[in-house]
Amino acid sequence: MGKYQLDTKSKVAAAKYQDGKKPAVSNKKDKINQLREAYLQKKNEKKQSGK
């Protein structure tokens, strides 16, 4: 058994808190990927216009 034991009310609160934290990370990853794609597209457009 762990050092701290949660009752059912606390378990629900902890699960809700953890669920609220998960999307922020995936949103950050999605945003970074979108920015990266936009940067690469701009870079490719500059290459093509420079030729």
TrEMBL record:
Residues 1-32 are annotated as: Disordered. Residues 1-10, 18-32 have a biased composition (Basic and acidic residues). It comes from the Bacteria. This is Alcohol dehydrogenase. It comes from Exiguobacterium mexicanum. The lineage of its organism: Bacteria, Bacillati, Bacillota, Bacilli, Bacillales.
